[in-house]
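[Automated response] Your request has been received and processed.

Submitted sequence:
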Amino acid sequence: MGTWQRVSRGRMFFGIVLALALVASKAAALTLTSTVDQSGFSGFSSAPFPLTDSPYDFTSQSYLALITIDSIEITLTMNDGDTASGNFDFNHLTLGLDGIDTGIVLNGFRNNKTDTLTITGTPANAAAILAALHADGLLVGTIIDSDPNDNWIVFPASFQTTLTITGVAAPEPATLSLLGLGLGGMALYRRRRS
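Generated structure:
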């Protein structure tokens, strides 16, 4: 076998492995989204205080297939959040899910204004949040204030809040079968050519 044939077969083998890996990785991405009414909470912030009127509900989605949480996105409306740069609650408010602090800081809300913002972050306690999600497919939204009782906050009940969780799902059996068949076929091909 000439050098050119060995190089060509090596490149083909590498290309097939790369293609199978890409198929497997794309099949494993999973995004869950839930929209619920805001709580209508109005008062001095304490830790934690309710954001949602009812839990974010993922029971109609493939929440049990999720094996990691890579990012969380929250859209919410707050009046008088006081977390714009320079305000006294800047870096003080974080998103809580089922009482677990995600560490996702809710900055950008102005004093004496009603703002709707979408904030994305990587959760600090992803494993605990994933366990809470797997328990029943529901997550209760709260806001945690590291400096409580210093800010009057309103979550208008006339608005909704959306939670989006993005992570990796366990590969489906069909994807694993496809990967196994591809690898088996490559092994057989290499054995016949040796």
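Summary generated for your ticket: Residues 12 and 18 are 10 Å apart (CA to CA). The mean pLDDT is 85.
If you did not submit this request, please reply to this message.
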